[in-house]
Amino acid sequence: MKSGESLKRYLSAVAILLVLCGLPAWAQTAAPASAAPAAAAPPPAPGPAMDVPLNVKAAQPPSTDDLAKGDPGGTKTGTVNDVVPADATKGVTLADAVNQAGQNRVAINFVWTLVTGFLVMFMQAGFAIVETGLCRAKNANHTMMMNFMVYGFGLFAYWVCGFALQMGGVAPSGTLGGAYPLNHEYALPLLGKTWGLFGMHGFFLSGASYDVAVMVLFLFQMVFMDTALTIVTGAAAERWKYAAFAISSVFLGAITYPVFANWAWGGGWLSQLGANFNLGHGYCDFAGSGVVHAVGGMTALAVSMIVGPRIGKYTRNGTPNAMPGHDIVIVLTGCFILAFGWFGFNPGSTLAASGNGALRIGSIAVNTMLAGCTGSFGALLYMWMRYGKPDASMTGNGLLAGLVAITAPSGFVSTVGSVIIGFVAGLLVCVSVELVERVLKVDDPVGAISVHGTNGLWGVISVGLFADGTSNYGGSWNGVAGSVTGLFYGGGAGQLVAQFIGVGTLLGFVFALSYMGNWVIDIIVGQRSSAADELEGLDIPEMGALCYPEFVLKPDAFGSGSVKAA
Amino acid sequence: MKNLLYIRKTLYDEKEIPVKLIGVLLVVVGWLLPILTLTAVQSTGARLFLSLLGIAISLAGILGVLNKAHLKDAVWKKA
């Protein structure tokens, strides 16, 4: 009996304990919202209500009568009157004002990116007349038509797949409001790291990519890609079969350019060398000395080697003959157009004019200006001292070389750095033109390999030397906190190594892929026009019309023509 | 058919195909050398050396092998 009572007492005690311990636990599990908050965390201070109408009169907006009197000083236009409320019956709320501020920032960045993209698009005209002016008159129509249609071929290929391969995994792009549909990068796990290889979203700009931010990014990136394509037409001018040019341009715009651009700008493995292997901030190429110009220059070298030199360029013992262009006026006018367009190329590469350190656009524009200037100084001095005359076409190429070289470092260097980079580029382009023509015996009628290839690589390397550690684009670059700093500014050699790996990739991957692609095109359709067509000039055989029909083409020493007035 | 004949003729004319393939291989090896050693080599100095060596190998492939192969049957030597 006793044992039965004690058992009852024991069970009762256990039941009471279970109830005492279990009830609060059950209560918290069943209804967490009603549970009291932990005593340690004080409740957050209540912020201003976002949906309460604001007292807009306190902002003293001008009345309709005031505005009707006109606003010559610009002090009454653009006030709280211009904030659009979500609910007109309620009036302007704090939420309306905050949303308007966010949209204004993205709108400024959209307009900036679009307008600078329009400037870059106009560079096509500059390239077209520079290249045509440096060619002989009998090939002027052909050269212009290559430059004209490279825009269309490149654009179409880029819309089909190039953009997706390049930028399909780049999201989020903070300055343009996210571009969130571009969120899938194909990455390969290797050596214990993931190596981003190409993007997977954005083909045909369809599906979720039908997005305003994606469209802005597409336009800006497309005109950059087309700049790379138009470099090749200059190096292979006067003997490149038009059909081969068309296929080669599509290949470059659809595959070669986008893949390298993804590695540098689309979140690919080159940009992650800093985060993955502690090499500075990874490969840094602000506006594309490597991505745009060196890719074009490497492809130009590959195509020039495959098509071979023009008839008459070299004597039988390999001595080069000068084959001057037919119009130096349009060459130098084209250089000015390109220098103007470069103000879109480099400052536009911030993809922003508001927030994330984007006000550095002023410094970037001045760096661009100075490097172009000292590039022309360098080339002019070299030619004057070596040949006794300030050669016009090489001075123009010096300007372009300075601009090409400052493209990668423009966002990271000071004005002193940009002056040095530009001057070295001006000297380098002259030395490189002589090396390519006399030692390598590669015929490049416009100097594209030296201007864009050699100086594109120099621009990439110069980031690792001259980056001064003062840039701050949202506090980090390529996922590494802090500013890009080169060897000369105490940043160590890590950044320089990343840049060298970029150079190695341009030589080892971009050149090899371009060479193989164009070799296959050569085997299937043939890259070079016939000797008879070349001697006649490609205008009639390839295009069916002369560029200058009212002029007589007089045969010269190479069986080719120079223009004389009829 | 005309295209196929053209392809056969082009390949027949290409006497330097093996040399060109070796040139391309050299170019690619120069690129891969510094990348594949990134995990094994931690020292920045060694990485700098390897990246410069890779560039030198690629340049040798482009200028020393490929370009020479193209110059062998250059148009100005036939004139």
Helix segment tally of chain A: 16
Under CATH, the topology of chain A is which? Ammonium transporter fold
**Tally of extended strands of chain A?**
6
The percentage of residues in β strands of chain B lies in under 5%
Assembly type of the chains comes to heterodimer
Query: Total helix count of chain B?
Result: 4
Instruction: Give start-end ranges of low-pLDDT stretches of chain A.
Output: 17-38, 561-566
Question: Can you give the helix content of chain A as a percent range?
Answer: 55-70%
Shape of chain B: elongated
Specify the CATH class of chain A: Mainly Alpha
The overall pLDDT of chain A, averaged over residues, is 91
Largest sheet of chain A: 2 strands, antiparallel
Classify the secondary structure makeup of chain B into a structural class.
Answer: mainly alpha
Distance between the termini of chain A: 137 Å
Q: What class do helices, strands and sheet pairing of chain A give?
A: mainly alpha
Rg over C-alpha atoms of chain A, rounded to the nearest angstrom: 31 Å
Mean of all residue-level pLDDT scores of chain B: 87
Sheet with the most strands: spatial strand order of chain A: 1-2
The CATH superfamily of chain A appears as Ammonium transporter AmtB like domains
